[in-house]
Every structure is written in C-alpha cells, then in structure tokens.
Amino acid sequence: MDNKRIIIAIDGHSSCGKSTFAKAIAARLGYIFIDTGAMYRAVTLYALEHGAICSGMVDEAAVEAMLDHINIDFRFNPQRGASDIYVNGDLVEGKIRTIEVSNCVSAVSSIAAVRRKLVAMQQQMGLKRGVVMDGRDIGTVVFPEAELKIYMTADPMVRAERRFKELTAKGDKVTLEQIYENVVSRDEADMTRAISPLRKADDAIVLDNSQMSVEEQMAWFMERYNEVISR
Ligand code: DC
User: Fold this and answer.
1) Mutational test site, ligand 1, from 104, 105, 142, max ligand atoms within 8 Å of CB
2) What is the residue range of 39's domain?
3) Closest protein CA for atom 2 of ligand 1
4) Does the CB atom of residue 9 touch ligand 1 within 6 A?
C-alpha cells in the first residue's frame, strides 16, 4: 500500500497556512505541491501590469482577452524546496503576494474564463497523482474524486496576524487593520461568488489550526493519511 499515490486536496480560507501545510506534506510524502492560489495571483499580476485593472476596478473582458497571452509554469527551486511560479518565462514568485495583488485577486478569480483555464491546467498537473494541491475548489471542482480532502480554517484575527508578520518581515508597509480587512473581505468574496465558491466538500475533514503548530498539524495529518492509505 505504501506505493499508492493519491491526490490530496487542501481547501479553505485565506491566510490560514494552507500552502505551508501543503508544502510540508508534499516534502514528507515525496509528492508534488501545487499552489493554485499562486496561479490566480499570477493572472492578477499580469492584468495589473497590462492595464486591465485600474484603481482596483477589474475590466473582465480585458482580462479574458489576455488569457491566451499568459503562459504559467512552475519550476522546482531546490533552495525553497518548492516550485516557483513563472509567467511567460519571468519569475513572479516575489511579486504575487503584495497587498495590491491580494486586493484584486478575488475579482479576477471570479471570472469564468480565468477559472476554466486554470482548472484545466490543474487537472492536467494532477494526472500523474502524488500531488498535494491547495486552493478553494480543489476538493469540490478540480478533483472531486481526491482520496483525501482537508478543509482548513482559523480565526480571522489569528490569520491576519500571521500574514501581517510575514509581510512586515519582508519590509512591506502594511497595517494589521488593512490585512484583517483583506482576509475578511476575501473570505466573503470567495464564499459568495457565483462560480466555484469556496465550500467544504461533503467528504472533507475540517482542520481548524488557530491554536496548532505546524508539527501538530502534521501529526494530525499523518493519522488521516495513514487511515486512507491502509484502506
Ligand atoms: O491561496 P491564496 O490566498 O494565495 O489565493 C489567492 C486568491 O485566489 C483567493 O482569494 C481566491 C483565489 N483562488 C481561487 O479562487 N481558487 C483557488 N483554487 C485558489 C485561489
């Protein structure tokens, strides 16, 4: 059973450590980690840099028209132990997590054509299995047949504080209030959008990590993983 490679879907709220968790799981299992939020962020960055977003207003038709010119790929970076994201050959990993991108990404990710393109890419990337994919619709839309689905959440203020620490450590000039507002408004936008809203798949297991360390989350995960793999 050890060589049974599965698909692990991790969905949940913004800034609750999904990527950190997914990355740690992938490293532990020797799986590929795919951060689908990075893909929506990369499209948003491209739209910002190419005039499809003005003063926070997203021109949906312009974004849709750009999609054929946006070529996204991931390349493994051994220093980070994870893949970096590239758009048309340019490394954009460092540019996609700014507050500017965060403030526009919900609007961009609610465009049907954007979702169609990215979901198709994600399904392609999972064909060989042995992947941990994190996002909002992985267990519900991208891989409804995933063997293990986790729905992550945490208290919004705890999430804002974590993201605030991350951004200020990088030198970003942001306030905790700005981040809190972004976290809460993205939850709202992600859960109420018309297409593929964030929701827990019926067969997903909830992980509230407000009070949990990464090690505790990993121990929790390994128990569930071993159950699935021994079935
Ligand atoms: O995981 P993240 O916060 O980096 O994701 C950025 C945004 O992308 C998030 O606000 C919602 C959107 N997203 C999505 O709609 N579907 C996904 N599978 C992943 C992210």
Assistant:
1) 105
2) 7-229
3) 37
4) no
Instruction: Give the number of domains in the chain.
Output: 1
- Residue whose CA is closest, atom 16 of ligand 1? 136
Whether 40 contacts 181, CB under 8 Å? no
Class of residue 149 by CB neighbours under 10 A (exposed 0-12, middle 13-18, buried 19+): buried
Does residue 126 line the site of ligand 1, with CB under 6 A? no
Backbone angles phi, psi at 77, to 5 degrees: -115, 105
Q: How far is the CA of 2 from the centre of ligand 1 (A)?
A: 32
Q: Is the pLDDT of residue 3 over 80?
A: no
Residue 108 is part of a domain; what is its CATH number?
A: 3.40.50.300
| Residue 8: CB atoms within 10 Å | 28
Look at residue 206 and tell me if it is in a domain: yes
pLDDT reading at 189 higher than 80: yes
Distance 181 CA to ligand 1 centre (A): 16
At residue 82 the predicted structure's pLDDT band, cuts being 50, 70 and 90, is confident
Q: How confident is the model at residue 80 (pLDDT cuts 50, 70, 90)?
A: confident
pLDDT in tens, 130-146: 999 999 999 999 999 99
User: Would you say residue 2 lies in a domain?
Assistant: no
The span from the CA of 108 to the CA of 95, in Å, is 16
CB-ligand 1 contact for 40 (6 Å cutoff): yes
The answer to the question of residue 1 being in a domain is no
pTM above threshold 0.70 = yes
